[in-house]
Structure to design on (392 residues):
């Protein structure tokens, strides 16, 4: 479970939380817990972040880096910056330890991925050599405090030595790898794409801010305790499953708690409970407001949305779609879209202050980081599989 700022939970449209029992009856049952406040004429600011030359250069760098090639070197020893493919076995007091060995591991010399002395100890050695490294874990070793300050030996076999070749950014490179003929044309397309992203981010931030205020203006007097319990149980189960999947990478349950910002299972339960109630605050306000304004989602609209998903992802049956997204996902998504359209049509945009501008910049930066994190997730998981307790 990820911590999300209020207003982003419903609007994200990709909930892990169960959304059972939606519809008019649910709106009626929620009405006893919700007293709507002011929801028309909500003021909001919208600041669209400017696309800078640095933004465009960053995209160009990513493009070029994605075209790097790896070339094996056979006529010299390992140097700083090389990529060495290695097998290694770590021992402490003559005994191998869990997570201290690997085969076929690609290590960039100078990356600082391993404890001091490991990478530099390979410099000057050639392909096929076995190198014995007598090292010591750092005195403060967060990865495994039990090993802190202790002696360790690694026997390392160098399988291959390679270098990365970065291509030069030229019109020819652009033409070969994109739909554009020149660097300038490609840069123009990047600028347009980033401007559209910034506009979308600004629109979404505005919607989120408006909905935040609508929820804040409303009075929540209680919850359906059965629904709360089910949602908490589901989220706790999901977290446990996530922790179990990380165990194969050498992470303990406590490690996963810490990575998600929790100090104990009690703090996890508190976090999940707060998250569920934030979600329910939004969900209840959403349904009660929709019911009051006569905003509905038809079966035909749901069928159309499901068909779009099937076509987009080449899914053969509606059953597969519902098994993945949940029974009421599409109703909630479409209802959210309609309610937000209504709220924005009745909201009022005002001039932003300097503080608003700074906050918008921070939001855009956070969203850009989240996008980069998502794009890198697959790569990170591959890396985690090979990460050992020898890494810092």
């Amino acid at each position: 479970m990820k911590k999300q700022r209020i207003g982003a939970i419903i609007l994200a449209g990709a909930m892990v939380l169960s959304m059972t029992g939606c519809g008019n009856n649910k709106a009626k049952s929620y009405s006893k817990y919700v007293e709507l406040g002011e929801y028309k004429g909500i003021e909001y600011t919208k600041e669209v972040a400017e696309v800078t030359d640095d933004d465009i250069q960053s995209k160009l760098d990513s493009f070029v880096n994605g075209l790097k090639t790896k070339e094996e070197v056979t006529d010299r020893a390992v140097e700083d910056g090389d990529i060495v493919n290695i097998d290694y076995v770590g021992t402490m007091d003559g005994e191998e330890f869990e997570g201290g060995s690997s085969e076929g591991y690609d290590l960039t010399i100078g990356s600082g991925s391993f404890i001091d002395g490991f990478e530099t100890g390979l410099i000057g050695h050639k392909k096929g050599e076995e190198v014995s490294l007598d090292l010591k874990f750092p005195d403060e070793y967060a990865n495994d405090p039990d090993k802190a300050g202790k002696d360790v030996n690694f026997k390392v076999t160098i399988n291959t030595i390679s270098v990365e070749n970065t291509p030069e950014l030229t019109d020819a490179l652009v033409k070969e790898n994109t739909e554009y003929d020149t660097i300038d044309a490609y840069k123009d397309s990047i600028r347009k794409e980033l401007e559209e992203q910034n506009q979308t981010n600004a629109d979404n931030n505005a919607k989120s801010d408006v909905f935040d205020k609508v929820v804040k203006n409303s009075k929540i007097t209680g919850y359906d305790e059965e629904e709360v319990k089910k949602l908490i149980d589901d989220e706790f189960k999901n977290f446990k499953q996530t922790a179990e999947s990380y165990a194969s990478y050498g992470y303990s349950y406590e490690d996963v708690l810490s990575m998600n910002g929790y100090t104990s299972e009690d703090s996890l339960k508190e976090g999940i409970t707060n998250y569920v109630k934030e979600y329910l605050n939004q969900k209840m306000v959403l349904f009660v407001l929709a019911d009051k304004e006569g905003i509905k989602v038809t079966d035909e609209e749901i069928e159309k949305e499901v068909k779009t998903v099937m076509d987009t992802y080449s899914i053969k049956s509606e059953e597969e779609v519902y098994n993945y997204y949940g029974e009421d996902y599409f109703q909630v998504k479409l209802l959210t879209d309609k309610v937000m359209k209504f709220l924005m049509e009745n909201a009022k945009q005002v001039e932003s202050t300097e503080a608003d501008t700074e906050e918008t910049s921070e939001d855009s930066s956070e969203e850009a980081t989240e996008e980069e994190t998502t794009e890198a997730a697959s790569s990170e998981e591959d890396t985690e599989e090979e990460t050992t307790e020898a890494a810092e």
In short: The chain has two domains: 8-53+183-386, 69-165. The beta strands are 34-35, 43-44, 69-73, 83-92, 95-108, 130-136, 151-165, 219-220, 348-349. The CA atoms of residues 250 and 291 lie 49 Å apart.
